[in-house]
Structure formats: structure tokens, C-alpha cells
Amino acid sequence: MREFLLSVGYDAWVLPALLIIPVAGALLLLLSGSRSAREPDADQGNHSARMIAFGVLVLEFLVSLGLWWSFDPASGAWQAPVDSAWIPMWGIRFTLGIDGIALMMILLTTFIMPLCVLGSWTSVTTKVATYFALMLILTSGMLGVFMARDMFLFYVMWEVMLIPMYFIIGIWGGERRIYASIKFFIYTMLPSLLMLVAILYLGIKAGDPATGTPNFSYDNLVANPTLAPAAALWLFGAFFAAFAVKVPMFPFHTWLPDAHVEAPTAGSVILASIMLKMGTFGFLRFALPLFPGAAMHPTVRGVIVTLSVIGIIYGALVAMVQPDFKKLVAYSSVSHLGFVMLGIFALTLQSVQGALMIMISHGISTGALFFLVGIIYERRHSRLIDSYGGIARVVPVFAVLLTLVSLSSIGLPGLNGFIGEFLVLVGSFKPYPVATTLAATGVVFAAAYLLWAIQRILFNPLDKPENESIPDLNWREVALMTPLVVVIIWLGVYPAPVLRRMETAAQALVTQVEKGAGLPASAPGPRIAVRAGAAR
After folding, report:
1. Are 363 and 112 a contacting pair, CB within 8 Å?
2. Is the pTM value of this prediction over 0.90?
3. How far is CA 299 from CA 240, 303, 304, 305, 433, in A?
4. Structure letter (DSSP) for residue 150
5. Which residues of the chain have pLDDT under 70?
6. Where are the domains of the chain?
7. Which residues are registered as beta bridge partners of 84?
8. What is the DSSP letter of 383?
9. I need a labelling partner for 376 at 20 to 30 A (CA). Which of 124, 276, 329, 424 fits?
């Protein structure tokens, strides 16, 4: 398969195509929406908009799927590279490329987005074409963040994805949607401006002194560090602010519960499955490689590890007392992403690969939980846990799926959540034994808040008459959940193909940061055998 894809030039066009396809789909939707608004049959126009959006995003997924086979796990070079002039007078280039880390984030994005269309099929009934057009533009922005190898291009894509989500929450959200959307925008926009200042400083400093043309090339900035330690610390702080809010790390997390609760179901899924990963990806791709000395300074590293452990425990404890199931799932993200940050800053091969696996598994499991919350909300119009009780007798398919997905989020062995948490704890124990021991309690707390929640929702006495006639999942909802369940089981039983594709990039990151920070090289630990050109 790899040889065939390379023979048709797949690597030369796939990344630009993945950015262009959603934008073209969005333009088609806006044009069709303006026409349908003038037609008497609005329902037909809405159905056409849904079909167009779904078709475009399925095409996007199928095009991206070739990356799974064309990617060479043994290669440490950028793959599917694209490099062309964009704004030459400012030294800005349109430069794209992927490694094993970006590959999995791209595939996660293209996998989740068609499911978000299915999840919005009946819940979004107003301005349907505009809603899906924004979702398509958001897709291009998120993919651009994962692909960008020019710092200015990265910042443009970083901001592009902010605007559609602001409107998705603010127009199609819940009762407090305006408050939640403005809070989301302010929290994420202001730190991003600090990052922009840092990017401009880096580009100008690395520019051509003869012509004064800046150089925003990521590869050049990583390969030729010219920063004094004090400057590097300030610049790392600017990047840290932008990424920590997006993760979100404790105590920068307070925008997240409001955004999740007020966003429509698909908006919550996109936030949890993909957009939160932008923060952790930013640390892996930019903050650590660009400023290894500042990031690995003992004080900085200790503070971030401490905040990560606090986030793990705090997020779990707050989730445990939430009466709103959607807010419970939102706070669980603070806890899960704390594990990711611990794994990143422990900086061993196992911990970094574990962090990457949690990023993927959290995207699948928490996205599935938000879909299930949205499904039951459409039937009962309540997210309160106490509004239910014993509904497993009435909706057995829903009950099985909710139980399975909850167990995967807890980290039950054999399901997708286990391998990532296990690798993070194993890889982090040597550098941070106390922090890792405390973090392990988060696994226990996760079991407590989710098992208690599903007991009250599914297995308590069925004592409310309004719950006795709730319809079970229909064919569309089963079709929506089936791919998520398949991936949950696959990653739990056989995660080796995913780990294999990420291993070279993870090891290169660890080695690069250790060298840049002047740290002794860590033992690489057990490795998964990688063969050049392997597609297994």
C-alpha cells in the first residue's frame, strides 16, 4: 500500500488537500444555505446541508487514512513535506510536514469530525448550513496547527480555530451560551497574543541581518538556538501561557466547564477530543524543543509537575461532586490532561508515549461520553444525574455503551484508557516518584466518580415515571457510537501499531530536549521493533 501511495505522489499533495477540502465544503454549504433560505422547503435545505457536511468530512477522513500506510515509522525526517513561499517580504513560508506525533493527531481529528456531524443531525435545527460551514472551517484550522512547520503559519491556524468555536458556542449553545463563549474567547485569545509577541521576537532575531527579513522556520529555530537563558525563560512563559490555558492546566481551567456545559453536543466533543490536545501538542512540538533549557529548569519543571498532579486530583474530586453529568465529564478532562502534562515533563520515552496515548484515548472516550450525554439529553432535556435512575431497564443499548465507555475512561485493562496511564506512571516514577504516587490516586478517584454516576443513572430504582418510556438508541446513534467502540477495544487490546508510529518522534523529542537542556541522556527503555517502511 505504501509503495502504491508514493507512486501516485500522495505525499506531495495530501496535506494541502486536507486543508483545502473542508474550506471548499464550507463555501459550498454557505452557497447552498443562501439558496435554501430563499426556498419554501427549509427542511430539505437543512437535510442537504447535513449530507454535504457529512460527505465532505467522510472524504476528508478517507484522504487522511492513506497517511497511516504511507508513513514510515522508522524515519526521523518530516514526512509528506510541503514548502513554498507565502509572504516572502516577511520571511513567511507555507511549510507543512508531519511526524509520528502529528500523524496521530491528524487521524484523530479526521476520525472525530464526521461523527460530530452525525451527533448534530437532529439537535441543530437553526442556521444548519452556517453551523456545519463553521465546523468545516474549524477542521482546517485544527489540522493546520498539527501540520505547520512555519511559526507564523502555526499562529494563523491557532487563531483560525478559535473563531468558529466561539460562534458554535455563542449561537447554538445553552442558556448561558453568550457568557461561556465570551469567557472561552478571552481566556484563549489573551495568552495567544503573548505567544504572538514571542513568535515575532524569535522570527526577527533569527532573520537575515543584511536584509532584515525575519525567519519563522520551525526547523531553523530549533536547530540554531541563539537565546540568552533569561530571554528563553520569558519566551517559554509566553508559550506556556497560551498552551496551559488550552490544555487546560490547573489553575487555568475555569473556562472549560462553562464552555463544555453550554456548547452543543458536537462542540463539546470537538473541545474535548481535539482542541484540548492543541495545548499538550503545543508543549510537545514548540515549547519544549524551542526552549529546552527554560522548560527543563528544575524550578519550572517542578512547578509544572506539581500543577499537573494537583490538576489530576482536583479535577477528579470536583467531578465526584457534580450534579450535572456533562459538567462531571468536563472536570474529568482536567484530571486526564494532568496525566498528559506529567508524562510530557517527566520526559522519558515511556512517559511521553503514554502522554500521547492518553491524548488519543481521551479524545475517543471523552468524546463518546459527550455524545452519550447529548443522546440522553435529547430525550429527557436534563443533564442532572438525579433526573434518571434505573434507566438500564428501559434503554439497554444505551446502558451497555455508557458502561463500556465509562470503563474505558477509568482505564480498565483491555480498553483504550489503560495503556496510556500505565506508561505515564511507569515512565514518570523514576524522575518523580512522589508526584507519580500521588497521581496514581487519580485512577482510583476516576473509578469513584464515574462508577457512582453510572450507578445513579443506570442501576438505581426506576422511580420516575417520565423515564419509563425513554426510547433506546436509533440506527443513526448506533452508527455514531460503533466506530468509537471499535477503536476503544482495538487500542486496549492491540495498541502496538499506534505506539510504533509515534516511537521514533517521541524518542527524538526526548533526546533533543535533554541535549538542549544539558541533561544526562536517559535510558531509552524497552522499544517496539520498527522496520523501515512498515505499515503494520
Report:
1. yes
2. yes
3. 14, 6, 9, 10, 17
4. B
5. 2, 7, 33-45, 521-536
6. 343-493
7. 94
8. -
9. 276
